[in-house]
Design a protein that fits this description.
375 residues; alpha/beta; Arc Repressor Mutant, subunit A; five-stranded parallel beta sheet; 51% helix; binds adenosine-5'-triphosphate; binds magnesium ion
Amino acid sequence: MENPFQYGKVVAEPYFTDRETELASLIKDVEDRHNVVLHSPRRYGKTSLLCKLAACMQERDYNVIYLDFFRVTSRESFMELYSREIFNQSGKRWKSVLKQIGALVQGMRPVVSFDAQGKPKYSVTFEAGKVLSESLESVLDLTEKLDPPKRWLVIFDEFQEIAKLNGESFENALRAAIQHHKRSSYVFSGSRHHLLLDIFNRPGRAFYRFGKVMQLAKIDPAIMAKFVVDRFKQSGKDISPELAAQLIERVENIPNYVQYLAAELWQLAWQKNCDPDAALLERALESMLDNLADFFLQIWDGLSLQQKRIVLALSRENTNPFSQDYHKRYRLGPISSSQRAIQKLLADQLLAKRGSAYEFSDPLFLLFIRKRFLV
Ligand SMILES: Nc1ncnc2c1ncn2[C@@H]1O[C@H](COP(=O)(O)OP(=O)(O)OP(=O)(O)O)[C@@H](O)[C@H]1O
Ligand SMILES: [Mg+2]
């Protein structure tokens, strides 16, 4: 029997639940040609939601481009990946689209080869010295110029990574081109929200106020619990609604971790040929923490000594860390060095500030620290 839960990757039905309101609102924005900036902490389900949006828009006869900015390493690689996405939408008309791309983009020649199954594979070559800044613009303008006219949805995932690509001049070129577009709607998504929101909220940056900002929240815990119960049932196991609610609470309802822990629990229940109970849930959590230990140790090793001291102190007590008392209690040395350490931990999103409390963004990292260093 296959495990009914999936984590760490993009999910679709039957591993996907809810997001109906968010999806309806995104569809409306795309149809109204409003640009949207979608953000959330890591692993809340942005990419899965965007893939669903892509499928919905394709049903409405849109062409869709999905580009993950982690894959973009230069202007040229952007031009290749972007025009390949366009090519991939062309279906039977691929020859004509290939010709149009060649004619419309100076300095870039699209080439098609065929794999063993006879499927066309797209790549590009660049003519030395002929790739101009206008070439990038004309790649972006393809959605507006290709014939016959179509509506396009363009999704830029992990968009904050654009800042690494020769800085803001790439941003300027992108904005200069797409601000005139009439047939194309854009969704910009990312998890490093400081970096992402900086692009859209800082006056003086090219994308200042360019899109409507939408924060993706966690899924309603009652809906998530029902999802867990149903998936267990569909695979021949029974979990009580109370235990499902407990499972969700243990990982603070972070969608990826809910499915991760549920997968571990289901696996144990399957091996022991029993239905899950509270004791098995604890074992599943242990096993999940063991699996994540290497990853967390790598994060831990990357911290400075002062950051480690602060992380340990905050794992015991997470409010008002800059008071004299707090510093004395946890032997933290000068307050100014703790301030620097915390600023860096916030910027790296290991911590998040809520009121006077500093919370661990990843509840399992907190559990790992407590288990490994505090007992
Ligand atoms: N709608 C959903 N229903 C149930 N589980 C979900 C849903 N969306 C996401 N998940 C869970 O979260 C995991 C991560 O989803 P996804 O990759 O879409 O998130 P993300 O926000 O894009 O993550 P990242 O910040 O790493 O890019 C999935 O593998 C799945 O376990
Ligand atoms: Mg993602």
